[in-house]
Amino acid sequence: MTGPVLATLVTVTVCVPDAKTTSPTRYCNGFPRILTQVHRSLKFRIQLIRKMEVLLPKLPSFKFSSPICCCSISTRSSSYVKFGFRRFSSLSVCASTVNEAVAEPSLGSPSLGHTTRPHFPILHQEVNGSKLVYLDNAATSQKPTVVLKTLQSYYEAYNSNVHRGIHFLRQVYAKATDQYEAARRKVASFINASDSSEIVFTRNATEAINLVAYSWGLSNLKRDDEIILTVAEHHSAIVPWQLLAQKVGAVLKFVNLNQYEIPDMDKLKELLSRKTKLVVVHHVSNVLASVLPVRDIANWAHDVGAKVLVDACQSVPHMTVDVHSLNVDFLVASSHKMCGPTGVGFLYGKIDLLSSMPPFLGGGEMISDVFLDHSTYAEPPSRFEAGTPAIGEAIGLGAAIDYLSGIGMQTIHDYEVT
Ligand SMILES: Cc1ncc(COP(=O)(O)O)c(C=O)c1O
């Protein structure tokens, strides 16, 4: 069974109106929308170009230079080069602007896009006398004021290291630790993890995947063990497994696309066997807009004794993600794609798995005791957080989660797919 393909055509976001506008036009949205990184298929791109040709010229100052603009929505994934997609370094539409005067919506109540647009200061600037359009949310989202203020407040008022440093700023130190751990609890509750100890802060999703590859992978995989992935995975979910496979002699097996140009779930089922030790899949694809049936995949994988790692970079910011009901073993995401700061992401891992895993990086924070010839290690999550973490950024991620939760993930999802 294959999950639905999200309606990405309507997700091309043109940010136009101001808070003062009272009614929507469907093509004007300020909120970071799902899956604007839409190298989906040639057919899709043609549809997209047509759609943009219809919508964008209605805005007088919008310069639709050529269809190639639409194709240039940036992606760092080249998995699709072999399907004929060209790679572009930037999205020229992103920097385009629209004229506010024509963007006044005329009917109905304000859309989520209209009500949230004022929250994003970067969208308030004018370029060549017109308002900024930002379309590249799948690559990184813009940050609402509440996140920017949280970062500023951390650095201005209570910047301190965490879990250590008994000094005269004791209260400041305690506040940084409290807020950092509160952010971890917010992440846990946002994805319905059992406990905050199942959340490891990393630099980004890429580092989270590498953590699993080097820690869990190196100690659990051996020659001829198999890892199943889809051809639609992001580089960050392919390359770490290539590196691991080269080290231990494991084999990567790829699920191709079916006739609907989404990963073929029948093929995935066929590939599963007792040799399979890990299945690595995206939840929502940054290139195809497909939504994979992660709960089914986890059940199929568990039936043959394999673990499942889900790349949730493009789902966590846009829909309710519940690790309990999905029953996945590992899940990763990046803060900067969910209205939070760069420099921080997270790994969710079932606690029994995390507890059984050796450290990834060595250093301060991750140890229990250090002797000259050996060390003992802290329990998760500290075991995997060597060195000083991105404290302010993690706290900022907590503020982003508050922001998204305040709107409601179901509201966001409904808005983005209709
Ligand atoms: C689906 C998906 N996975 C992983 C990543 C990697 O995220 P990061 O660069 O924040 O580690 C991205 C980034 O575009 C992505 O879209």
From TrEMBL:
Coiled-coil intervals: none
Source superkingdom: Eukaryota
Aminotransferase class V domain ranges (all copies): 133-416
Reactions mediated catalytically: (sulfur carrier)-H + L-cysteine = (sulfur carrier)-SH + L-alanine
EC id: 2.8.1.7
Cofactor(s) it depends on: pyridoxal 5'-phosphate
A Pfam short name: Aminotran_5
GO molecular function, one term: cysteine desulfurase activity
Residues that span the membrane, as ranges: none
GO biological process, one term: cysteine metabolic process
Keywords: Pyridoxal phosphate, Transferase
Record family assignment: Belongs to the class-V pyridoxal-phosphate-dependent aminotransferase family. Csd subfamily.
Identification of the protein by name: cysteine desulfurase
Organism: Arachis hypogaea (Peanut)
